[in-house]
């Protein structure tokens, strides 16, 4: 699935408390066989999609949730779609895994309609995004997310440091721990408990978000990689393909989408 173009995104926003979500709403396309580490929720807003897992037969579904790293094809040609990627190691991803009894979880028309209602990416960028994500978990029968977490004061400071840190600077666990005067082990535990995601995948999603913003603003791929903190454009391309199943250049060329960061119900 090719992701529609993403409008300019502000680098001035503080990093989100939850990992960034990459989401779009716009014309669908047909994809060849591919896989990606991110979980993948696609809703056919005006009709069913065709989905195939590996060599299995095509099935028609109103929407689909795809498990991480599952080879699949998706045909949404001629449909308007809502497309959302999220990290499988996040709290939301772990909850949604409970709704998967196989490589994919098909959505009924009623489930699609419930989740599509007012699910505009620009609105998901605010506090409504947290409520919508919880609705996804509940609608798909994965239970309910636990109550909002309390953020450790040192973790809040880490998030501010990440916001202020120039691209490419050392954001290792040891360096951040020293900055906030915690041991690496204690910071690792506090970060995961506070955010619901370990520091390393959190940073990977943050780089992905910043790279996408730079690419769609017209920045050359090499410069976008550097601005986001990747070693080079090849490293960025590998990360895009592994996590999203697409190349960075696929972000260019279509219409109407948003880079969505689910910031939870709280701000740093």
From TrEMBL:
In terms of SUPFAM superfamilies, this protein maps to: Homeodomain-like (SSF46689)
Q: What GO MF annotations does this protein's record show? A: DNA-binding transcription factor activity; sequence-specific DNA binding
Q: Which Pfam families match?
A: HTH_18
UniProt superkingdom: Bacteria
Q: What are the alphabetically sorted keywords of the record?
A: DNA-binding, Transcription, Transcription regulation
| The HTH araC/xylS-type domain, residue ranges | 156-254
* Protein name (database record): Helix-turn-helix, AraC type
